[in-house]
Amino acid sequence: MGVVVPDLTNPVLPPMVRAIxxxxxxHGLACLLADxxxxxxxxxxxxxxxxxxxxxxxxxxxxxxxxxAVAALADVDIPTVLVTREVDGVELPLVTGDDxxxxxxxxxxxxxxxxxxxxxxxxxxxxxxxxxxxxxxxKELAAVLGIDxxxxxxxxSFTVPAGHAAxxxxxxARAGVTAVVAGNDMMAxxxxxxxxxxGLSCPDDISVVGHNDMPFMDQVDPPLTTVSxxxxxxGAAAARMLVALTQGERPASERVxxxxxxxxxxxxxxxxx
Length: 273
Known about the structure:
single chain, 273 residues, alpha/beta, 6-stranded parallel β-sheet, 8 helices
């Protein structure tokens, strides 16, 4: 089996990959792991290589939401399951966390604490993760606070430097922002860094919410309030679906959203009047 991921240095991916490997091993299957570095050209080359090696099936966290190489897999006879990320207009089985559920909880949590001017700092728009989470944020902010044009900044990646740059941009503008929702925990750490440089305190000046609950987010200062995504369960469910497909079985559902939940820690508090 082939497993294709966009960036294995992202801390949320190793637990998912480990779960995929474990389930496949239990079924007498091994896997080849490939890292695309979030590049379409590299993704296309690696998928071609895995197919040339006659992999029985593929689990893919795609590089972009417009990946032609992944889209082409919908028309060939090789079982393929997408995890976390999807491709626009492509009907392939998908297993992911329910981002909308977690973001709704995060926005409502901040609103209950009195925050109204909430900025959203997220990753590149060409990623389905970005589009899905940003859409959920916008919808919930409109539903809860009646805000239809929130502050949204796109970084060039879901990384600490991208979160740092986006936070510097937003907080330097002095737009009255009292809370930040970050597209993932790495970006949230970048927000922490920017705040420290600017002499701002979290959560007294700015409350921060992350996404993913990657390892050690309860150990940072302050511990990060974040949306917990069941990465191990996502990987295991994707592997089980792939095994079923290779055995000629059809899953009960080809779009599996596993529940997420908000884990409240010390990075959020009531808005200071």
